[in-house]
Amino acid sequence: MNEITLNENSYRLLDTGDGEPVLIITSREETELLSTQLELDKRDHKLRALRLNISAVTSSFFGNKESMNLKSLARDIHALLDIYWLDHVYLFSDHLNHRQLAKLQTHLGYRATIF
Fold first, then answer.
1. 2-114 sits in which CATH class?
2. 3-class secondary structure per residue, 11-59
């Protein structure tokens, strides 16, 4: 995983694959991501997986998991999409619950769809 700074917040990012981009928001370590990749590989699509590890910012930037600042996360994701020249990504997370993921999608607008 590579370190990336978005709006002064540090994340770890792993970009693999080719095809439709899927942004995987996780707090797992790289070795634990294998099961997530296997789950995505079962689908019929060719996918480009962008694994954004938010563990470094979860406690200080977002507070506890239930009160995450999704607007700030969305701002950072917009910056990430701009850097990688992506108009749209599919969202997947093993960290956010469905309600949080839906709220994040709202903040990202046309640029994201829940996977």
1. alpha beta
2. EEEEEEECCEEEEEEECCCHHHHHHHHHHHHCCCCCEEEEEEECHHHHH
Sheet holding 2-6, edge to edge: 2-6, 9-17, 47-53, 20-26, 89-93, 112-114
DSSP letter (8 states) at residue 10: E
This prediction has a pTM of 0.83
Binning pLDDT at 50, 70 and 90, where does residue 35 land? low
pLDDT at 12 over 90: yes
The CA–CA distances, whole Å, from 69 to 3, 18, 106, 110 equal 21, 30, 13, 20
Q: Where are the domains of the chain?
A: 2-114
Instruction: Tell me the CA end-to-end span of the chain in Å, nearest whole number.
Output: 22
